[in-house]
Amino acid sequence: KAGVTQTPRYLIKTRGQQVTLSCSPISGHRSVSWYQQTPGQGLQFLFEYFSETQRNKGNFPGRFSGRQFSNSRSEMNVSTLELGDSALYLCASSSPRLAGNTGELFFGEGSRLTVL
Amino acid sequence: AQSVAQPEDQVNVAEGNPLTVKCTYSVSGNPYLFWYVQYPNRGLQFLLKYITGDNLVKGSYGFEAEFNKSQTSFHLKKPSALVSDSALYFCAVRDIRNNDMRFGAGTRLTVKP
């Protein structure tokens, strides 16, 4: 069974640009969560999508947005990039609606964004 | 809202010695508790979880964790550390009422030969 796939793995942008990151969850998983990881702030929850609906949202500015498609694939977008947006962006999937699921997340390898 | 605390930024142990990585949590209701490990430039890998039942939970790579409800703790343990266990470890708690998963700040484990 294929794991969670994130693309691209690495990217470099300049301040003011925008970026879109993609996440393909494990087959059958309908929930996708996004996290930002930085050395200073640790793992910060961005948002969670389930069946194309945003179910939870963390404390990030409106420049950070996401969406989920009918095939459960998800994208997140960051507009007007700032230096502080440099981070590892992690996507995780889970299947909270399946019987017996106990809610562990399965993570992708992440997309490392560098903003210059 | 639920929260997780990992009181140690760094834990150093010698190879072959037992290791403990500490975690305390706060959540309304019954917690779902998890440990994850992260190697450099990789995503997080699931190690083990506590949902209900025995307080001692066994997981991958010889790790185990002890759930203590009165102390609201879920410490990760291993009887004999390996150099390859050196990594960043995260404790997490899921509030089943809102399905929200929150992570601790992480503890960097270094095992020295």
Which terms would index this structure?
heterodimer, A: about 120 residues, mainly beta, seven-stranded mixed beta sheet, four-stranded antiparallel beta sheet, globular, B: about 110 residues, Immunoglobulin-like, six-stranded mixed beta sheet, 12 strands, about 55% strand
Using only CA atoms, what is the Rg of chain A?
A: 14 Å
State the major sheet of chain A: 7 strands, mixed
| Tertiary shape of chain B | globular
Largest interface: A-B, 24 and 24 residues
Question: How confident is the prediction overall: mean pLDDT of chain B?
Answer: 92
How many E-type strands of chain B? Answer: 12
**What value does the average pLDDT of chain A take?**
91
Q: How does the overall form of chain A come out from the CA principal axes?
A: globular
Identify the CATH architecture of chain B.
Sandwich
- Contiguous low-pLDDT stretches of chain A (5 residues minimum) are none
What would CATH call the homologous superfamily of chain B?
Immunoglobulins
Protein model, in words:
The complex is a heterodimer of chains A (116) and B (113). Chain A is mainly beta. Helices cover 0% and strands 52% of the residues of chain A. Chain A starts with a strand and ends with a strand. By secondary structure, chain B is mainly β. Chain B has a single domain (3-112), classed as Sandwich (Immunoglobulin-like). Chain B has strands at 3-5, 10-14, 19-21, 24-26, 31-38, 44-50, 56-58, 64-68, 73-78, 87-95, 100-103, 107-112. In chain B, strands 2, 5, 6, 10, 11 and 12 form a six-stranded mixed β-sheet that branches. Chain B has a four-stranded antiparallel β-sheet with strand order 3-9-8-7, with no helix packed on it. The chains are: A mainly beta (116), B mainly beta (113).
